[in-house]
């Protein structure tokens, strides 16, 4: 069976994100016409007795199912059914339920950071306020920045963080050694470009891969990582457009320099192309989040000992090398009549270090709960990665200051104009500042949002 992004622990697959943007717009219209924009049937219910349903996908769903028996020992009156809806099917299913005023939604919803702001903005009552159920006491328990993601106004709590993935620099140590390049000395992406030239000259292998024609909606992942390393994004905290900010132009210029130097392999086709690249060793570096280590181990077990990981180089000298680039969350549906019982399950899974350590051991899902990292599971050397303690590499990143990135309800539209701009740079040699300026203008016209320049 072909492996795709939905098989990763995170499971955020942006290939359907553009469709989500349209689905949210259509759903909002439907809600307005039908008068079902809010979930009026929800309530706290009996906190000790209920039958609740949980929606998730693949590996996270398995991890949640494994938690049910021990949860029921503490809460024998609460029956829990975990359903693997699949990814991206879960987004269509949640959106449809939200548009119908919450009808048909599960009690607990597993939601990616790509989608959470859109649901919260388009359907204000679609998610229960967990603050009233006791969530606010965990305000300081999660990786920096993530609380602002789930509670943008500092009052209402739309979800609790589950998974936190940091930016990573996964590299073939054998290729670096053959080229005489010290990966640990790469302080900036300028250094990485010079290293890439040496690696290509010595081995014929390019530095990284990008989906140049943007055949998939996630083609801008690397560009997005470069933004996040600079503490910025497509929108600022107020929802204004920052697509042509100095940071964005700097990031796109790095990509252009890499491409002009012949260091970028074309990953058109997306995930399957990337997997083939792993097997054929066509690139030396994969700048990908925490979860990517599990993909490498699964797809190329024969390359055991050849891989290492470190935090990515900074974009500018002395700049940050840490960023929480994506995350997932558990929310309670506003339509649920069993919100108190659903919250009990969310709290049990996400706020107990023992629960998160167990999930990490079984599914390699990196938790947002910082206290979980006291467990020995996160400090064990990996034979596959040459004895490295991968958990400690990313723990360093999670401890670093990290802003909350505002995906907003218009992330899908932003992603489309960004990938179009990047394609012009990669395939036509366009000027980064020009194409990003045009992208910002286009997004402003589409959304009515202010452009910050």
UniProtKB/TrEMBL annotation:
Is Lipoprotein among the key words of this record?
yes
CDD domains, per the entry: PBP2_TMBP_like (cd13585)
Its keywords, alphabetically, are:
Cell membrane, Lipoprotein, Membrane, Palmitate, Signal
Q: Sorted alphabetically, which InterPro entries does this protein's record hold? A: Bact_solute-bd_prot1 (IPR050490), SBP (IPR006059), TAT_signal (IPR006311)
Q: What is this protein called?
A: Sugar ABC transporter substrate-binding protein
Source organism per UniProt: Streptomyces niphimycinicus
């Amino acid at each position: 069976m072909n492996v795709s992004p939905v098989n990763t622990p995170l499971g955020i697959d942006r290939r359907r994100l553009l469709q989500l943007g349209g689905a949210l717009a259509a759903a909002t219209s439907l809600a307005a016409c039908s008068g079902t924009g809010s979930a009026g049937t929800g309530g706290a219910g009996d906190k000790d007795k209920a039958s609740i349903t949980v929606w998730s996908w693949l590996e996270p769903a398995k991890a949640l199912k494994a938690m049910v028996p021990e949860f029921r020992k503490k809460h024998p009156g609460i029956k829990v059914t975990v359903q693997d809806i699949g990814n991206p099917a879960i987004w269509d299913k949640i959106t449809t339920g939200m548009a119908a005023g919450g009808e048909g939604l599960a009690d607990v919803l597993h939601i990616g950071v790509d989608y959470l702001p859109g649901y919260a903005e388009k359907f204000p009552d679609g998610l229960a306020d967990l603050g009233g159920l006791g969530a606010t006491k965990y305000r300081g328990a999660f990786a920096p920045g993530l609380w602002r993601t789930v509670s943008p106004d500092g009052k209402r709590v739309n979800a609790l963080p589950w998974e936190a993935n940091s930016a990573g620099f996964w590299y073939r140590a054998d290729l670096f050694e053959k080229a005489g390049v010290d990966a640990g000395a790469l302080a900036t992406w300028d250094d990485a470009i010079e290293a890439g030239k040496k690696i290509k000259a010595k081995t014929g292998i390019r530095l990284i891969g990008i989906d140049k024609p943007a055949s998939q909606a996630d083609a801008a992942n690397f560009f997005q990582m470069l933004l996040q390393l600079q503490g910025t994004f497509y929108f600022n905290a107020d929802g204004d457009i920052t697509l042509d900010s100095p940071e964005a132009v700097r990031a796109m210029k790095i990509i252009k320099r890499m491409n002009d130097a012949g260091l970028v392999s074309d990953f058109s086709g997306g995930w399957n192309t990337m997997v083939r690249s792993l097997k054929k060793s066509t690139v030396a570096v994969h700048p990908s989040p925490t979860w990517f280590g599990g993909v490498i181990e699964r797809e190329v077990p024969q390359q055991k000992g050849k891989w290492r990981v470190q935090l990515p180089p900074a974009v500018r000298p002395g700049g940050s090398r840490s960023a929480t680039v994506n995350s997932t969350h558990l929310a309670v549906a506003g339509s649920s009549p069993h919100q108190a019982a659903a919250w009990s399950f969310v709290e049990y899974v996400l706020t107990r270090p023992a629960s998160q350590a167990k999930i990490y051991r079984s599914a390699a899902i990196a938790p947002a709960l910082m206290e979980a990292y006291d467990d020995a599971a996160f400090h064990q050397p990996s034979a596959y990665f040459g004895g490295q303690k991968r958990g400690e590499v990313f723990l360093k990143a999670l401890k670093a200051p990290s802003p909350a990135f505002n995906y907003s309800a218009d992330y899908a539209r932003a992603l489309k104009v960004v990938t179009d701009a990047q394609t012009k740079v990669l395939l036509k040699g366009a000027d980064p500042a020009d194409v990003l300026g045009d992208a910002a203008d286009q997004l402003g016209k589409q959304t009515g949002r202010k452009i910050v320049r």
